[in-house]
C-alpha cells in the first residue's frame, strides 16, 4: 500500500455531483425508475456478495440490446441518488460510483469517466494515476490503427481512458480477477452510453463499445491463446509479495471470497529467484509473454515501484532483449501502516539493498532496515515510482530465438542475458544465438565432436578472426572451451608446470589448493600432490609482470592486457621477450 503526496494533473479521482459532468444531463427519474433504484439498493444492502450479484444482473441487461438503455438509465439514477454521499453508499450498499478525470490540464477533451467500484477489486489509486501520467508522456501520433492491451485492468478505467483519448483500433483490458472483468464491462457501458441510455459517438462515428473489450486472463494468456498481435502493452502491475505463496495454485472462480479475489491484485509469480525476491517476478513473466505477442516495432509500458532499486528494475528489461527509456518518475509515500519486515528479511539474505527515501525531495536512499526503524519511530518514508517504455532490441532475431526455445528449453530461455554493452556487436551475437538455438533444436543428440570442439564452429571463429582482426588463422588454431576459466585450468593441467603465474583477474575459478601453497623455494624438487599446480597471482600491468617473470622464472604465464597497453604491440613484444629469456 502506498499513498501519493502529489498525483499531478494527469488524472484525478473526484466524487462529483452529476451536474458537474458536462454533456450528461439526464431526464428526471420517473416513479417506476425510483422503484427500480430502491429495489437495486435493497438487493445490494445485505453484503458485498449480494451487491456483486445485483451488479451482475444489471450487466446481463446491459449486454442485451433490448434492455440496454433501461439498464443504463437505472445506473444513472442510482448515481444521482448519492450525489453527495458516495462514501455512505460504499459502506451501506457495498459499491460506489466515482468520477475520474484522466486528462492533463489544458487537454482539449473534458469528458470525465464514471466508474463503479466494489470491495473485491483492488484499486491502487496512487499507482494507477501515476502510471496514467507516465502514459501521457508517450507520444504516439499513429494510435488510431493500433491494438492495445492493459494488464491488470481492475475496474477498467485506464483501458477506457486510453480508448477515449487515443481512439485506437482496439483496447483489450485483461485481469485475473473475474469480478473485476464484470465491473469493467459495467464501467464501459456507463461511459459508452449517456444517462438516457443513448450511445456516445466519437469523431469517427464509433462508441467505446467498438474500441474496448474486457477479458478474464492471467496476464497475456487471452491474447496468446487467441493469437492476437499487439502494438502496445501497458501494465500497472503490483510488486507486493503475496503472504500466501499457494494463492495462484488455487482455482480462480467468480465465487471465490472477496478477500481472496482482492489478494489476486497483489499476487507474485515465481519467475526467476532474484527478481521474485524483489517482487518483480510477475512483471518479468509479463515481459516474457509480451515478447510472443508484441509486434516487432511494438512498445511495452510498465509501472515499476523503485523499492528494489533502479538498477534491478532496469536490468529486468535489459537482460530480456529490450531497449528502455524512462517516461516518468515520481516519489510516493509509503503508507504508515505498511509492514515492510518481509523486505528487511529479504535484504538480509541478499547483497542488494532496497531503496527508500526519508523525504520526497532528496536522492539519498536508505535500506529497508533503516526505513523500518525510522517508520517505527514515527517517521515517514517514500519510494520511487517509475514508468518505463521498452522496445525489443533486434526484434526479428529476439522473437525468432525465443520461438525456438519455447519448447523444451525453458531453463535456457529464462536464464539468457541479452543485454549488450556494445550495440555494434549485438547483431552478430544475436545471429549466432539464433543459429545455436536452431542447431540445438534440430540435433536432439549432439554428434561426437573432436576434443578441441565443433569443427564447423572453429571454422566460423577462424573466419571471424581473419575478417575482423586480419589474423591469419585456421580451425587448427582454435580450441573451444565452456569458459575462459575452464580453458586456463585445462591448459595448466595439460602442461603441469612446477610454477605458473596467472593474471589476478583470471584466478577466481581456479582450484583453491593451487593458490594456497607457498612452496616456491626448491619447487623443482618438491613432491607435489597429483593434479596440483603452484599458481602465483600477478598484476596485469606489463612492467610489473615482466619483473615477476624474470625473478620467478615460471614455466607458464597466463595474462590479460590492460586496455591502454593493448593499443600498440610494444607491451606484448616485451612480455614475449621476457618469457623467451627465462624459457617460459
From TrEMBL:
Gene3D superfamilies: Vaccinia Virus protein VP39. It comes from Aegilops tauschii subsp. strangulata (Goatgrass). Pfam families: Methyltransf_31. Signal peptide: none annotated. Residues 145-189 form the Methyltransferase domain. Residues 45-72 form a coiled coil. InterPro entries: Methyltranfer_dom (IPR025714), SAM-dependent_MTases_sf (IPR029063). Keywords: Coiled coil. This is Methyltransferase domain-containing protein. The lineage of its organism: Eukaryota, Viridiplantae, Streptophyta, Embryophyta, Tracheophyta. PANTHER family: METHIONINE S-METHYLTRANSFERASE. It comes from the Eukaryota.
